[in-house]
Amino acid sequence: MSVNQALAQVSGDFLIAALVIYSLAVLAFAGDFAFGRPSRAAGAARDTAEAAARVAELTAVGAAGTAGATSAAGGAATGDGGAVADGPDGAAVAGGADGAAPPAGADAAAGLPARRQSAFRAIWEAGPWVRAAVALSAIGMLAHLVAVVTRGFAVHRAPWGNMYEFVTALTCVAAIFFGYVVVRYRAWALGVFVMGAVVVALGLAETVIYTAAGPLVPALQSYWLSIHVTAMTLATGIFFVAAVLGIMYLVAERYRARVAAGKAPDGNGLLARIPSSAQLDKLTYRTVVFGFPIWTFGVIAGAIWADQAWGRYWGWDPVETWAFITWVLYAAYLHARATAGWRGRRAHYIQLLGFVSLTFNMLVVQVFITGMHSYAGVH
Fold this sequence. Notes:
This protein is mostly helical. The protein is 69% helix and 2% strand. Strand 1 and strand 2 form a beta hairpin.
């Protein structure tokens, strides 16, 4: 079938719109860092001081609600994930986080507010910068998704038949997956980093590896394209988010170690506003756990496709080899993460090495090394 040039143009327009909207979302996330989070931290500290004063007052006069108030103060001091304050009748009321009136617990102080309220309410109470950033991200995701879908309709196939389409699709997956992380874990503090990386990758796709809409090369004209490449696209988008989180973990952990050794002053403004290294470690691990089975399925589906196309399941083609190396590295990360002696920075180095292997396979092996998969379509 011939390419529908009108739909191809619509796809390109929506992709440019998504790139612009994502960029505005990054600016809004940065605005929250600069203006929103400090004011919320000051408000939380003020509320904590007021709660402590109230507890002291009730203790002094022997009020009936003393025990509940003391329990509330203990919850705030120990950082049990949220704060508790006296309600109108002296009853303990669980507080929200990151913008809610009651003081936040340890999770909120480290950048991930406690999940004691709905995600949408938490986003609303986080302040205008977060609301704007999340709204812009959602609109950008919708435009990005429309761009990918219309590209598929324009070329009458799955819209990841060349490197340009693959990168635009995986960045769409990365953005949508990060949207899930924001809703599930209240992780908008990571938005400036993850969405910033999406903007860079999408910008490079539009300027460096752009490929006009066209038909598939004969080697890819199979229904297995919709199975194998879809799985690899989903997994790569998820691993993209994990890589950004892993880099943030290494930066935060290195600074924490330097502070503990007395080599750096405590209270770095930027690092104080992102989740703690322990929380970043947990988020990275959960992200890789989510993506690893999808990558495994993609490798298996590729082997089945290879048997149908070339009469063998595995031939140690360069792309096949690097896909297997990537699988081994991510499997090693998961094993290291479960082994006490290899947790922390060592495990994250392995995870990032896995993403480097994946990126090398995608941008170097498929483009510059001759093999059975040499049809990336970059020109």
